[in-house]
Amino acid sequence: MVGRSPAAEVIWARPERAGRGPKPAFGRADIAAAAVRIADSEGLDGVSMRKVAAELGCGTMSLYNYVPRKEDLYELMFDLVSGEYDLSAEPSGDWRADLLALAHQGRAMMHRHTWMPALMSPVYGFSPHALAYLEYTLSCLDSFDARFGEKMELIAMINGVITTYVANEIATAERGRSLPWSEQQEHEARTRYLAGQISTGRYPRMAAGFAEDSGPIDLEGVFDRALGRVLDSFER
Fold first, then answer.
1. 47-70 pLDDT, tens per residue?
2. What pTM, to 2 d.p., does this model score?
3. Looking at 27, 58, 82, which one is the last position of a domain?
4. Where's the HTH tetR-type domain (predicted)?
5. 93-138, pLDDT tens digit by residue?
6. CA-CA distance, 131 to 61, in Å (whole number)?
7. Which of 30, 140, 198, 216 is 20 to 30 A from 12, comparing alpha carbons?
8. Contact 127, 85 (CB under 8 A)
9. Could you give the angle at the alpha carbon of 202 between the alpha carbons of 200 and 208, nearest 5°?
């Protein structure tokens, strides 16, 4: 006979620890902090229930009393890091400026925890700290005349830009660290190759473009302009 599927549940609706017994030596925050330390050091793939249990000094099976699934562990990690947003200041009334400030906080947070872009999903968007962030962001949009659904679309698009941009920055940095030569040598070699290809005359538009602006690229400016264009598309 086919067994029944487990009932759907959210870890935040569960008690801190299932079962009876003495007062636990640690809680969800301790588990999340241990997992985040491992992820910061070894990446998300390095996180396992066994390693978290070893970090806490407990048995792997006992950890399942607190965190039934690895997906729940990811949700705890996401929530802990989401708590790094500074939401103490009152919104200024300038919703564009407030969203840009939050975006820069998010970008810095993802660089501190380079595994975070992989967990940026609506699935993990309903933890306590994530809800606090969402409520604060909506309060920044009080002066923005739009329906709730449109405000949520704007927040999602901003977070999408941040996640995509940072993921590319992280991937570029990781590739640079894996090279058998310096990043400067890599850049010079690729620049020489590109210049040789442009000089063939097969790419006239690219040749004209590089003659107009040969760089270097202002990555900070590109980030702000990308966000600005999203905001422009929503502004009345």
1. 999 999 999 998 889 888 889 889
2. 0.86
3. 82
4. 25-85
5. 999 999 999 999 999 999 999 999 998 876 677 889 999 999 999 9
6. 30
7. 140
8. no
9. 90
The DSSP symbol for 151 reads: H
Residue type for 56, please? L
The answer to whether residues 66 and 31 touch, using CB atoms and an 8 Å cutoff, is yes
The residue among 90, 93, 92, 89 whose CA lies nearest residue 144 is 93
Residues 6+ apart with CB under 8 A from 46: 38, 39
- Bond before 24 cis per omega within 30 degrees: no
Position 126 in a domain: yes
Please say whether the beta carbons of 140 and 95 come within 8 A. yes
Contact (CB, 8 A) for 174 and 166: no
Long-range contacts of 56-62 (CB under 8 A, 24+ apart): 56/26, 56/30, 56/31, 58/25, 58/26
Q: Report, in angstroms and rounded to the nearest whole number, the Rg of the chain calculated over CA atoms.
A: 23
In a shared domain, residues 99 and 209: yes
